[in-house]
């Protein structure tokens, strides 16, 4: 990825973070489903199942927000680079010339 543009790198990192976030949400969901399976009464079982469902919904929503944010950042970077490439090059002003001091005419005295 050394030669890749930064917008591609941004999208790639966001995809990795998205996968990690969804894996964590699935792990948490599985934990709650396991607790639901071990629950003795139906109210507790239903509460754990509902918590597992909400965990996945919240995880998916967070992953979606993360992806949208990364896409916006990548698009913004790509747009700014495209605009910078199309802009005419800036000409440097010539360096200011130092004024040369006027030579004083020195008259020689005749002896």
Mean pLDDT: 88
**Tally of structural domains:** 1
The main sheet comes to:
none
Low-confidence stretches: none
The total count of helices amounts to 2
**Helix proportion:** over 70%
Judging from the principal axes of the Cα atoms, what is the shape?
A: rod-shaped
Order of helices and strands: HH
Termini, distance in Å?
Answer: 85 Å
Give the strand content. under 5%
Over the alpha carbons, how many angstroms does the gyration radius reach? 34 Å
Number of strands: 0
- Specify the structural class: mainly alpha
Key words describing this protein structure:
111 residues; mainly alpha; 2 helices; 0% strand
Secondary-structure map:
Elements: H1 6-38, H2 42-86
Q: Can you describe this structure in just a few lines?
A:
The protein contains two helices and no strands. The chain has 111 residues and is mainly α.
What this model shows, in words?
It is a single chain. This protein has one domain (6-83). The protein has 2 helices and no strands. It has helices at residues 6-38, 42-86. α1 (6-38) runs antiparallel to α2.
